[in-house]
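Exercise: predict the fold of this chain.
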Amino acid sequence: MIEFEEESRESAFLNLEAAMEKYRLGSLSGIEFRDIQLSYMNASDRRLRAIYQAKVSEISLHLMAGELFRSR
């Protein structure tokens, strides 16, 4: 899932770069540009959420396996 979201974020970033140029040249409205910015922000957020969920799942598996909080 992380890899998929990373690819999605990269695609959204490339789209944002193209949109910045179109906006600079005046061929893209402010609202359209803002929508593309929002798309990139959402893709970045989904990537971070996927990373977070993977870490939570990893910790849960370690807890179930009894690998955390062992007495020494």
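Check your answer against the key: The chain has a mean pLDDT of 94.
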